[in-house]
Specification:
Elements: H1 3-38, H2 44-74
Helix pairs in contact: 1-2
Amino acid sequence: MSQTSFFFLSWLILAALLFFPTTKLVWVFSVRRLQRRLERQLSPEEVDGQRNRARVIATLLVIIFSFLFNAHLLGPPGQ
């Protein structure tokens, strides 16, 4: 396995492993912030909307973080 292939494989595995806990954390913070701002409990539709929003944010976070982490640990791809 080439170094570039190993880099991209480890990048994807790390991103996949971090996705679910990061999504949960972002979702909890988002729901609590919105409840505090609106001063009421959220409806199920609002909670689902926050969950979808958390998934998008978490996807961006874990992709960027895992790339930077692997680039620091293994060196940039292609070197």
